[in-house]
Structures are given as C-alpha cells and as structure tokens.
Amino acid sequence: MNLNRITAIARKEIIQIRRDAFSLALAFLMPVMLLFIFGYAITVDVDRLTTVVYDRDKSNLSREIVRGLEASGYFTVAAYVDDSRLIDKALDEGSARVAISIPEDFSRYALTGGQARIQVIVDGSDSNTATIALGYLNSALELAARRAGLGSLDPLIDVRPRIWYNPELKSRNFIVPGLIAVIMTIVAALLTSLTIAREWERGTMEQIISTPVKPAELIIGKMIPYFAIGIIDTILSIIIVVALFGVPLKGSILLLLFISSLFLFGGLSLGILISIVTKSQLAASQAAVISSYLPALLLSGFMFSILNMPVPLQAITYLIPARYFVAAIKGIFLKGNTAGMLLTEMGLLALFGLVVFTVAVKTFKKRVT
Fold first, then answer.
1. Range(s) within the chain of domains with CATH label 3.40.1710.10
2. Rounded to whole angstroms, how far apart are CA atoms 153 and 108?
3. Are 265 and 357 in contact (CB under 8 A)?
C-alpha cells in the first residue's frame, strides 16, 4: 500500500465529483429529498377514516354515539344516508371506508339493559387499514358508550398494557430511522457503481492501468471521497430525523456513526465490485438498484416484518446487510442499545464489507480486455 498513490486517486475522484453536477446532486440533494418524501408519505397510521352513518334510531343516544366516534379523531363522518343501498354505493365508489348502521330500537335496548347492536361495515380491500380500523372502532364505540352514560361490563381480566420504546405507537418513529439505511444504500452502491465504469467508458482507465497503482490502492482511493459523502449524508439525515420528524435518539450518536461507517464500507465495496464487473455506467446503475436498493427497501425489515415473510425469503434476508443496519439503527434510536447489544450486527456488517472488498480487489485486473 502506498499512501501517496491512494491520495492521488482520491484527489482525482474529488475533482471528478466537483465537475459532475449530477453526481453532486445525487450525493447531497437526493438523500434529503428521499427523506422528506418517504418520511411524510410512508405511514401505517390510520386516522380520519371517511365514514357514512345510517341512523334509523335518530335518538339523542345514537347521535351521541356518532359524535363520540368523530371526537376520537380516527373517523370523519362524510355523509348521513337514509337508505342501506347508499352504504353499498359509498363503499363501492371508495367515498367511504367505514359504514355505521344504527337500528331503530338501539336506544330502547341500550337504556333498558338489553342487547343493543350497531352494525359496522369496513372496506377490507386494504386489509391492514381494515384491521386497524376495527380496533379503533371497538375502542371508540366503548368510549362513546361510556360518555353517553351506558357504562360497560366489568371485564373478567383487568388488562393494563404498557408499551415500551414507542409509547405513542407512531409509525413515523418506526419507519423514519430505517430510511437512513435505504438512503445510505442508494448513496453507497449507486454512486460508486459508476466510478470504474466511467473510467472505462471515457478511455481514461488505460492511463490508470499504465501507472504503478495497485488494484487495492485504486479501489480505496475511489472509495474515500464517497465514504466522506456518505458520512456527511448520515449526519444530515440524523439531524433531519431528530429535528424535523421528532424521532427520539436515545442511544449514542458516535455508535450510530460507527455502525454507519461499517455499512458504508460494505455498500461502497459492493458498488465498486459492480462497476468493475459491468464496465458500463448504465448497466452498473441498473445492477446497483437491483442488488442493493430493492433488497434494502423490501427485505431489510425497514417496513415489512421479516417474521411475516415466507421462509425462503427469510433465509435470503440474512444475506442483505441492510437487515443488520436497520436493526441496529432502530435499536439505537428507539431503545438506546449499546455496542455490547449490537456486536452481532457490527460483526456481520464488517464481515460483509471485508468479503466484498476482497472480491473486488481480486476481480479487478490491470489489463485492457
């Protein structure tokens, strides 16, 4: 290893990045844009569900029940209908997600201690939303009944749930930290996948090959500027996640940056390997998206629980480094995990980086083919 040759390659790559407006935009603007888009657009929280009400009872009690549902904040009454067929029409057209049908004798049964029933119809085309909506409905109806003076039966078991790490159950606290892993995957793999391929396409690789620079020196020199960009993007993302989205950072920021460095090293090595193999910027960018971005988005546990995936896909996720980075970053943000708790994740990320870097060095040949 010759430090002067590594520094020369790194300096050359910095000049190339400064001259390439697209690379600069990709490096700094895209992470911020993706964080804003994904952070605000992706949510599994369910609120303001459009609701139609068919109230045949038309009593003070039935109206109080409906007002209680609206007061919960989860339901918005879009219309009152006077025909059950209009319920079907509203659900079919998508103008309503929930329908409440109150029978004529609801208040009479409720006030005399009988079995008062309310029909609830939920659009199940989105099963996740429907399941959450049913849970909200049960809670909201029970609260509305108590406010209306109906009371409730004492349960046989007194359940007092206590939620740790994300007590408000905000999906943003769960999703946004994982976004950092997805963004770093894009920055690492996509940017570096163009480096070696660009040299081949522009005909400058022959000049580099004629120099004494070794494959490992070339790869390290190419990686250094993008590693610095990745760390800057990580710090910028952490600031946005904490300051703008209000996600608590309970763990050590230094530990977070260290694990991010391990992940970046593996991602950069993978991008370099793709660039060496493809020798084409178009092919390299496509291969980087398929091999890094899509697995990080779909198979890392960032949004979808790995335990709910089919067993063959669960096995594949063990080969995805983003899986370990997502687990680590969520643990640091929400649980305050320490280094001792994340030894497995750190070890596997370091192993992945070393293996891919070694393969990249062995694959690169200093000859024109």
1. 49-147
2. 18
3. yes
Specify the residue for token string 């070696």. Answer: 196
pLDDT tens string 287-326:
888 888 888 888 888 877 888 888 898 999 999 999 999 9
Give 148-194 pLDDT, tens digit per residue: 666 554 444 555 666 777 777 677 788 888 888 888 888 888 778 87
Q: Which pLDDT value is given to residue 149?
A: 63
Q: Which CATH class is domain 49-147?
A: alpha beta
- CA dist 220 and 214 (Å) reads 10
What phi and psi values does residue 334 have, to the nearest 5 degrees? Answer: -95, -30
- Nearest partner of 300 among 321, 315, 286, judged by Cα: 321
Could you please report the per-residue DSSP string of 177-228?
A: HHHHHHHHHIIIIIHHTTHHHHHHHHT-HHHHHTSS--HHHHHHHHHHHHHH
- Indicate the average pLDDT of the chain: 83
